[in-house]
Backbone:
């Protein structure tokens, strides 16, 4: 930023105060813009409020001094007064740095008003070639009344052409902004060193104003999209608040789907009926009746079979101990037969 210069129509004390307010507010914006701290931190928000207060005070002083008029040309503005054209843009940029969620819609609308004021003044002085944005879009209720919401839901070919033109304009603004920033970096060195003449200083301020024109156009485009979202969210909140609470419904009972009531009465549901007891209840009921596999008669049969097998084994052991000749002969013949015949030979019963 350049040093403060003289301002026409004011005393020597007033220009110094006005210039200091602008320079300090501009410096606060640059510090906040490149700060590494979170934007919502207390220290950053204090700086933002202080910078807005300084720039608003400077704007009121510029309005009282009547520095700019619609009847004059850009060449008629003094070089020292050119930087005061940036006041609305800087106030709007700092306003966008506020992070109050409850007042977000009010914040973005206020910032948009500042940006529009800056662009209108630049348009009046023909500082840069650009198309002035439209006024704020109507609310969703007004759009529905006018029948615009239905038209916007389905884009027509003219809308697609307009969207393509907006995209191309945005690309051109980005390129133009980069060119201005490159030129600004070269001129800033001479201005900051204090060795710049009136022509270099004038070029520096005009480059800053033209750069902020591209910034404000992009900001307004983003604000319009955010305003539409915020209005819809606000409408959803009010709609949810107006709806009465839903009554508590009783739990639904199980039911069976059939082709018709007559078929259900004649043929039934087509599958077993719904269960009338749990598995534990069934086991407990049959356990009391003594008809489970490990209870009653089945258990006795199992015990009798086991006793018969044990007696048969004891009989074989006794015969082996007594060395019954007939049993020994029978066992030897059986062993000889097994040696000459494979296992399962002659088993006609199982057809093996």
Residues:
């Amino acid at each position: 930023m350049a040093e403060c210069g003289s301002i026409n129509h004011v005393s020597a004390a007033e220009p110094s105060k006005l210039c200091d307010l602008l320079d300090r507010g501009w410096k606060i914006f640059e510090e906040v813009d490149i700060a590494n701290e979170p934007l919502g931190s207390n220290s950053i928000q204090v700086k933002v409020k202080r910078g807005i207060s300084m720039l608003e005070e400077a704007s009121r002083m510029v309005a009282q001094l009547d520095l700019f008029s619609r009847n004059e040309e850009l060449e008629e503005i003094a070089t020292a007064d050119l930087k005061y054209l940036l006041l609305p843009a800087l106030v709007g940029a700092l306003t966008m740095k506020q992070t109050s969620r409850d007042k977000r819609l009010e914040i973005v609308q206020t910032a948009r008003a500042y940006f529009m004021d800056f662009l209108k003044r630049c348009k009046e002085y023909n500082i840069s070639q650009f198309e002035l944005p439209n006024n704020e879009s109507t609310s969703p209720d007004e759009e529905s009344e006018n029948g615009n919401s239905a038209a916007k839901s389905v884009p027509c070919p003219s809308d697609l052409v307009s969207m393509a033109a907006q995209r191309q304009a945005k690309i051109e603004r980005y390129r133009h902004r980069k060119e201005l920033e490159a030129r600004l970096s070269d001129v800033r060195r001479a201005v900051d060193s204090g060795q710049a003449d009136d022509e270099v200083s004038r070029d520096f301020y005009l480059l800053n104003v033209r750069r902020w024109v591209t910034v404000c156009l992009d900001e307004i485009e983003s604000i319009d999209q955010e305003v539409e979202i915020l209005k819809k969210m606000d409408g959803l909140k009010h709609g949810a608040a107006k709806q009465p609470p839903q009554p508590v419904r009783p739990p639904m009972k199980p039911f069976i789907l059939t082709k018709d009531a007559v078929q259900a009465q004649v043929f039934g549901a087509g599958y077993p009926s719904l269960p009338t007891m749990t598995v534990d209840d069934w086991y407990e009921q049959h356990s009391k009746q003594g008809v489970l596999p490990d209870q009653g008669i089945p258990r006795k049969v199992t015990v009798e079979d086991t006793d018969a097998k044990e007696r048969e084994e004891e009989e074989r052991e006794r015969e082996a101990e007594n060395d019954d000749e007939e049993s020994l002969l029978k066992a030897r013949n059986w062993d000889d037969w097994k040696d000459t015949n494979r296992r399962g030979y002659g088993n006609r019963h199982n057809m093996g």
Observations:
- The radius of gyration is 48 Å.
- Confidence is low (pLDDT under 50) at residues 5-15, 137-153.
